[in-house]
C-alpha cells in the first residue's frame, strides 16, 4: 500500500489539505473546490449529489492526535459550515481516531446533526494507493503546483467536453522530446506562486569532459538602507562561507547569464532569480557527542547526547546538522576553519506524542541553559574535540514562561515514576496540565504511604430525613469527624485510569453553615444538602488503605 508522508506534509498544511482536496475531486465526480483566497465561508470542498443533497468535506493536515486545540478548530469549521445548511459533513484528516476521539466526534452531532463520517489515515492511504500520481505530487511538488492542478480540474469540469486524450498525447510527446535534447539532465516542470512555469533540470550522473555542465555568471548586489536586503546579504554571505540555501531576486543580479549544453537554449533565457543550495552530505558513521551545560567554574548541571548525521560545506567552513537521541532537539554546529571558531544552535519543538521519560533530559537541559552559564560540546573518542562558549540567550521555547521548562521536567519525571510504580505506561496526554502534575505528585505521596491534605474548606453532605438533620443540628459546639472508606480509588489521567486500591478520607468539621436553608429545602423537596466548615486545625486528609487509629483530639 502506498504510504503518504503525512508528517512531512503537515509542515506545509496548505500542501497537505490541497492534496486531499485533489483526491476527493478524483473520487467524487461532482465534487467542486472553492477558491479560498477570499475566504471559503466554511465550504472548502462540496458536492451536490444525484439526490440533490449538499455534502461538505473538511480537509485537515493534522497528524498524531486530535488535541483540544485541534478539536476547537474543527468545531469552528462546523459553525461556518452550518451556515450553508448541508445535508452531510465529512472530516478528512490523516489520523485514525481512538475511542476517546470517536466519542468526541460522535458527540458533535448533538449540535451539528449533519456530521457524518471521520475519514482517517488508513482510509486516505487506501485511496491514494489507487492514485499513485497524486502521491508523486506530494513527494515532488509544491502546494502551489497542486492548487494549479485543482484549478485545472475545475476548469475541465466546467468547460471540457472532450479532447483529454489529445492533450495527454501532446504532453507525452513534448516530455519525450525534451528528454532527448537534454541527455545529461532530467527535465520536469511546475508552477510557482505567481503562475509562472518553472523548469527543473536535475543532473543524471557525471557528464564526460564537462559537456553537461550548466554555468551561471554574473555579479551579486544588494540595495543599501533596506533591512530585508541586509538580511538577504547576510544569508548569502553565510551560505557561501558555511553552506546552506539562499534565494536571490533579479534585483540582486547584474549581467547574469546562463550557458550549457547545446540544444537547451539556455543562452536565450533571461535570469529572473537564483536559488543557491549547498549539497547535503550524509555523515557516515554519524558524529556523536555530548552537550553539557556548566557553571563558569566547569561544574556540570545538565547534559544530553547528540548525533550529527549531515553536513553542508562552504568556502570557510561548514555546518553540521543533527539532533539529540530522542529527536526532540535539533542541533546545528557551524564551524569556521579560518579562525577555528564554532557556533552551536538548538531548536526544540514539543512533540505531539511522547513517553514522559523521553522528554525529561531535553527539558532539564533547557531549564539549565541560561545566560551566564556555559555550553560545552565534546565529541566521542576525540580528546581534543571540545567546543565551549558562554550561553548568550535563553533556550526557553517561545511562549513559555521563565521556569516552565523546569516545571515540566519535574512533572514528567513524576509521571515516569508513577508509571513505573503502577506498571501502567502511556504517552503524556494531550491535555496534561499543571493541575494534573500536582495530582500526580499527590498520588506518589499516597503510594509512599503518606497522607495528603485535600484542598477546599467545606464538605457537603446529603440529608434525606428530618431525623438525620436534627442529629446534625444537635451539634452545638465542638467538632465532629466523618470518615469515608472506599473499596477502590481510580486516578484518571486523560484516557487512562489507574486503580490505587482501598482509600480512606477523614473530615473534621466545626460548624454547619446553612442549617436554616437545609431545613427549608428538606421540608419543600424531601432532600437537603448540608454544608459544613472543615476545622482549620484538622484539615481533611486522604490516604491509601483502611482507617488508621488517630491521635488527634476532636
What's the short version?
The chain is an alpha+beta fold and 554 residues long. 32% of the residues lie in helices and 30% in strands. The protein has helices spanning 6-9, 13-27, 68-82, 99-107, 121-129, 132-140, 143-159, 164-181, 227-242, 356-368, 404-422, 434-447, 466-473, 515-525; strands at 32-33, 45-48, 54-59, 88-92, 115-119, 185-191, 197-203, 215-220, 245-249, 253-259, 273-277, 281-294, 300-313, 317-324, 329-336, 341-348, 374-379, 386-390, 452-453, 458-463, 480-486, 490-493, 496-499, 503-512, 528-534, 541-544.
Give an account of the 3D structure.
This protein has 554 residues and is of the alpha+beta class. 32% of the residues lie in helices and 30% in strands. The chain contains 14 helices and 26 strands. Strands 16-15-14-13-12-17-18 form a seven-stranded antiparallel beta sheet. Strands 19, 20, 21, 24, 25 and 26 form a six-stranded antiparallel beta sheet that branches. Helix 10 packs antiparallel against helix 11 and helix 11 crosses helix 12. The longest helix has 19 residues.
